């Protein structure tokens, strides 16, 4: 059991050991780098949190910002300069604007990850709670990083859920079923704040150093060709799991993997503006990627929805993929004006159903995954199952807090 499992057990007070289940949009299980992620994303995004970072446990003040364009250089808007309102246009506009941004001393990100839990015994009487983690990271030009992490308190997901929670007595601790068996606990009490930024040494992204990221191609086709060489456990379900390059994948599997690594370049990694622009342009060339109108992210920021051609049973990775009972659809929310990836969210496509056999536990007894143990068992198609929001993603000269 790695440090992510241990942290999550401390958080949820599980009655028994819990697997890496639901811990994966931030686990870099593909590229061979240390595990990083929070709780779930049916198809992983990418980032790495080290052991030292995981024990930091402190809060930071969120400033909703993004790298601005240089003074006197107005952003390109959708539809301007002959830009057609076609599927890839929002991505191309974002690419034009992000390329104008500066590169400074530190790459600073604040990420908040959330999973929506259904609390209750039936679809009729349940309410939803939002379980959240926050990760604040500074990476300098040499790749050295310091991190502040916090387990945020859970809270009702919508106003209606708040009414139902209050009707249930407004409990400050709530039990929920754990996919592997047993019960976990969500805490709605305010979380203790404070704590320094922990230095964790050199950081890699997608198996690359900061210098290697800076050397990536700045043309979309060349960048795509370079990313196709990244090795990882890309298969959702495989009888013989093992690392292989993305270029070994075909069709939707390849698109999914390329969109995942592009998400890392845009939301997490200290990639220079020209590389980030190339990532947006590469996404615009992938089959099935399209704009789906406007929406707000979990912080209330407006943006353009980019739908990825991904409907999958993958909750997280090789170990957990065969356990998922539902299917999910991935969306990005971007701000084309600033060239910023605001958030990624997974929507329920097919709610959990049926059951699936699991490997025997430590006691050797047979186990089976059932709908009753799924956090989103009462979700309807189209409802958010989980998300990752990028509250801050900017180059800055400000010293880490």
Briefly summarize what is shown.
The protein has 401 residues and is of the alpha+beta class. It contains eight helices and 16 strands. The protein has one domain.
How is the secondary structure organized here?
Blueprint: H1 3-12, H2 51-54, E1 65-66, H3 89-98, E2 106-119, E3 127-140, E4 144-156, H4 159-167, E5 173-177, E6 183-187, E7 198-202, H5 210-214, H6 220-227, E8 231-232, E9 244-245, H7 251-267, H8 273-285, E10 290-296, E11 302-312, E12 327-335, E13 340-350, E14 355-358, E15 367-370, E16 384-396
Parallel strand pairs: 1-16
Antiparallel strand pairs: 2-3, 2-16, 3-4, 4-7, 5-6, 8-9, 10-11, 11-12, 12-13, 13-16, 14-15
Helix pairs in contact: 3-8, 6-8, 7-8
